[in-house]
């Protein structure tokens, strides 16, 4: 959760997407202007939808990983 740290007036919250081994490989993020959603709403209302979507992405990654090995890329 970031509340104004990235940009004045911007709230952002994110969850991890994990691969089959449980390693974080991506993140899902929602950002909104402070006038659109209170801090409490951002903490209580947004995470369940993010977690549901992350679970769906993880399920797809797990299925896809059964068909082809995709090596992790290493940042230079």
Ordered list of secondary-structure elements with their pairings:
Blueprint: E1 2-3, E2 10-18, E3 24-33, H1 39-44, H2 46-65
Antiparallel strand pairs: 1-2, 2-3
Describe it for me?
The protein is 34% helix and 28% strand. By secondary structure, it is α+β, with helices and mostly antiparallel strands. Strands 1-2-3 form a three-stranded antiparallel beta sheet. A hairpin with a 6-residue loop joins strand 1 and strand 2 (10-18). The longest helix has 20 residues, at 46-65. The model has no long low-confidence stretch (mean pLDDT 85).
Structure described in brief:
The protein has helices at residues 39-44, 46-65; strands at 2-3, 10-18, 24-33. It is of the alpha+beta class and 76 residues long.
Report the β-strand fraction as a percent range: 25-35%
Strand order of the largest sheet: 1-2-3
Question: Strand tally, please?
Answer: 3
The biggest sheet amounts to:
3 strands, antiparallel
| Helix content, binned percent | 25-40%
Rg calculated over all Cα atoms? 15 Å
Output the structural class.
alpha+beta
Feature tags:
single chain; 76 residues; alpha+beta; 3-stranded antiparallel β-sheet; 2 helices; 34% helix; elongated
């Amino acid at each position: 959760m970031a509340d104004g740290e990235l940009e004045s007036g911007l709230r952002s919250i994110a969850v991890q997407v994990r691969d089959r081994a449980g390693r974080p490989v991506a993140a899902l993020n929602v950002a909104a202007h402070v006038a659109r959603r209170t801090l409490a709403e951002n903490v209580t209302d947004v995470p369940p939808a993010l977690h549901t979507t992350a679970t769906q992405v993880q399920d797809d990654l797990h299925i896809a990983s059964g068909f082809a090995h995709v090596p992790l890329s290493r940042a230079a």
